[in-house]
Amino acid sequence: MNSVPIAFPASPAWSRSPTLSPGPSSAGDEGRSPAGGEGEQPRSPGNANGVPPLPRAGEGQGEGRGEGSTPYHATPVAHLLDGWLNEAVSLGASDLHFEPYPAFYRIRVRIDGVLHELARPPLVLREAIAARLKVLARLDIAEKRLPQDGRLQLRAGGPVPRVVDCRLSTLPTLAGEKVVVRLLPDASQVPALDAVGFEPEQLAAVLHALGRPHGMVLITGPTGSGKTVSLYSLLARLDDGSRNLCTVEDPAEIALPGINQVNLNERAGMTFCNVLPALLRQDPDVLLVGEIRDAATAAIAVRAAQTGHLLLSTLHTNDAPAALVRLADLGVPRWQTASTVHLITAQRLVRRLCQCRLPDMRTASAMAQAGVGDDALSDDRPLWRPGGCASCRQTGYRGRCAVHQVVPVSEAMRELMRVNAGAARLAEQARREGVLSLREAGLRKVRAGLTSLDEVLAATAP
Ligand SMILES: [Zn+2]
After folding, report:
1. Among 3, 46, 108, 416, which is most buried by a count of CB atoms within 10 Å?
2. How remote is the CA of residue 118 from the centroid of ligand 1, in Å?
């Protein structure tokens, strides 16, 4: 992924009064100073976790980090970290990277899929930063030679205070420990099914498949294409109070009220093969399996979908028709796949244009050169390209939307499966039945002014 310099809002993040706390399993000693040199903070009596309070606006902590009035060395690492984490939340970041290099230290945030530099604290702070983060996630601060992972909770302030669940991982690199904090979405960020970005005919096909009492609905796409959130949108749609909904994930990314969520834990023996039979004894109607990634999972998932359960899951394939072949590669007999899978979607995320968008004056020949034919974009509405303003931090984009290919498995496709047809023939049949490709669905979003041509071309490159 590329790194883009970014202009941040003038108001410092730490004026938004966040607090940090360790993961739910922890209690007690997290307020301890990890590196011994950064200064212990007084505990706030009102803070149940015993976590140091954050500096408020006007306390003089960290204003103008590095360039401005208060130098880094005058601010405790715990306060600096609170500021960076809170700033990441308020920017809507999905990940925060703490990266030591031989000559410098860099903190970057991923926003809408792209990394941006957030700060460059002095390299000398690298161990204190890693140690403090490890304390917050209840990791072993003495272990610096092996990767570790844990969880922590970030209490973000602002107009609507909320708790952000985070996953933290460390990795020993040549220049020291690199730490990545993943900010997990919460239930409020799961969109309703009609806001997921399906085209009208795609939504109709999805609703039809969800109306079936059993069988399988699959979402495909690469890592980071938003499959999990879409899967949860499908699940939320099915949650009308009359069904028993269960998920098995490794691990669950979003906690949803009203849904029985189970985490796999290979080390403790909680494997998919152990958990699923137990779940099936619990009278489920709908099962969500985080990902079908091996033959054992595929076999059990198909069996569950054939015995009166609706099963939702994801697969790593480039497009939807390839998922049928992928299941065969995982050892599921083709006739079984053909009779079990009702619908497959593929998806990609594209960045949404900010309101500062500008007309895209590209000529028809430039479009043709980019591989976009006249038929795809031939109406009189203008296309748009990114502009740049303060609210999108000069990137031209704010937020993302999903682009989908939705393939209902037809009788003709089932027949092709039974005669061992490959992915290309299945894709050809889907086209014949009027299924939009990912690019065609993306170009509709371009025409609607939601995103830019370049975004869709990049996200749907073959
Ligand atoms: Zn803008």
Report:
1. 108
2. 19
Tell me, in angstroms, the distance from the centre of ligand 1 to residue 455's CA: 16
**What is the distance in A from the centroid of ligand 1 to the CA of 457?**
21
Q: State pLDDT tens for residues 288-333.
A: 999 998 999 999 999 999 999 999 999 999 889 999 999 999 999 9
Distance 126 CA to ligand 1 centre (A): 34
- Ligand 1 centroid – CA 452 distance (Å): 13
Q: Tokens at residue 15, please?
A: 């004026």
pLDDT of residue 361: 80
Considering the chain, what is the average pLDDT of its residues? 83
Measure 398 CA to ligand 1 centroid, in angstroms: 7
Provide the whole-model pTM: 0.79
Compute the distance between CA of residue 435 and CA of residue 134 in angstroms, rounded to an integer.
48
SS3 at position 423: helix
pLDDT beyond 70 at 61: no
Q: If you measure from the C-alpha of residue 186 to the centroid of ligand 1, how many angstroms do you get, rounded to a whole number? A: 25
Tell me, in angstroms, the distance from the centre of ligand 1 to residue 368's CA.
28
Q: Classify 201 as helix, strand or coil.
A: helix
Taking alpha carbons only, the member of 394, 380, 395, 376 closest to residue 442 is 376
Q: How many CB atoms lie under 10 A from the CB of residue 2?
A: 6
Contacts of 181 (CB under 8 A, 6+ apart): 85, 88, 95, 96, 98, 133, 152, 166, 167, 168
- 84 within 8 A of 14, measured Cβ to Cβ: no
- Mean pLDDT (whole number) for 127-153: 94
CA of 358 to the centre of ligand 1 (A): 10
pLDDT above 60 for 20: no
**Alpha-helical regions (H) of 162-293:** 200-210, 227-238, 272-280
SS3 of residue 449 by DSSP: coil
State yes or no: pLDDT of 458 exceeds 50.
Answer: yes
- DSSP per-residue string spanning 323-367: HHHHHHHTT--HHHHHHHEEEEEEEEEEEEEPTT-EEE---HHHH
Whether the CB-CB separation of 325 and 355 falls below 8 Å is answered with no
Using one digit for the tens of pLDDT, what is the confidence trace for 396-420? 999 999 999 999 999 999 999 999 9
